[in-house]
From TrEMBL:
It comes from Streptomyces griseoviridis. Residues 20-136 form the Response regulatory domain. PANTHER family: TRANSCRIPTIONAL REGULATORY PROTEIN NARL-RELATED, TWO-COMPONENT RESPONSE REGULATOR. The modification 4-aspartylphosphate is found at residue 71. InterPro entries: CheY-like_superfamily (IPR011006), NreC/VraR/RcsB-like_REC (IPR058245), Sig_transdc_resp-reg_C-effctor (IPR016032), Sig_transdc_resp-reg_receiver (IPR001789), Tscrpt_reg_LuxR_C (IPR000792), WalR-like (IPR039420). This is DNA-binding response regulator. Keywords: DNA-binding, Phosphoprotein, Transcription, Transcription regulation. GO terms for biological process: phosphorelay signal transduction system; regulation of DNA-templated transcription.
Length: 231
């Protein structure tokens, strides 16, 4: 027997201005499709598009936006990294993560990063509008079908005496790991993150030691598995 689908939320009251949305995804076709979905609603309008997380942060500061919809895997800065940065700089901004990864770890990371919702690309045509409206109302959104799995996983952890999943690396290490895997030099990474090349090298050495790895190739494979870059 199929579960009852969640109720469809109503648009904002008549006369209210539409919520201004920033859309960030490194695939132009995905942005185009998502924009068509959102711009087709009277209470939502896309006012800016970004091709990576760093550009998303810049555009969010340049435009008056109410909601940022961020893909997870993007160049330079992931959606999770961008969400953390936006949460620090613009604490009143609502954030949604849009992803192809049906992954519990990413879900918890998204919540930690300040996102109020997590939407799968495979069902964006069904769930995205509802998720956007929930986010603008400052309500959480969990994609249908995830609740049971998340609760079961949480209860299993409690039974084992475990806590929530821990981060393998720090936020700064994650930023450097991603850029190393993308092929940037220490000098380039330092310029992007406003730190010295020597500091980048120190973080890189710590990453290799912490993860038990030998070289850039192994770091790149780890970054792919962690969803920081696409294969």
């Amino acid at each position: 027997m199929n579960p009852t689908p969640p109720p469809i939320s109503s648009p904002a009251p008549v006369g209210a201005p539409p919520a201004r949305v920033l859309l960030a995804d490194d695939h132009a076709l995905v942005r185009q499709g998502v924009r068509l979905i959102l711009d087709g609603e009277p209470d939502l309008t896309v006012v800016a598009e970004a091709g990576d997380g760093a550009e998303a942060v810049e555009l969010a500061r340049a435009h008056e936006i109410d909601l940022a919809v961020l893909d997870i895997a993007m160049p330079r800065m992931t959606g999770l990294q961008a969400a953390r940065e936006l949460s620090r700089r613009m604490p009143n901004l609502h954030i949604l993560i849009l992803t192809m990864y049906d992954n519990e770890q990413y879900f918890f990371e998204a919540l930690r990063a300040g996102a109020s919702g997590y939407v799968l690309k495979s069902v964006a045509d069904r769930d995205l509008v509802e998720a956007c409206r929930a986010a603008v109302r400052d309500e959480p959104f969990v994609y249908p079908g995830a609740e049971r799995a998340l609760v079961r996983s949480y209860l299993e952890r409690l039974h084992r005496g475990d806590g929530l999943p821990e981060r393998a690396v720090t936020e700064r290490e994650e930023e450097i790991l991603k850029l190393v895997a993308e092929g940037h030099t220490s000098k380039e990474i330092g310029e992007l993150l406003f730190i010295s090349a020597k500091t980048v090298e120190r973080h890189r050495a710590n990453l290799l030691h912490k993860l038990g790895m030998k070289d850039r190739l192994e770091l790149t494979r780890y970054a792919i598995r962690a969803g920081l870059i696409e294969p």
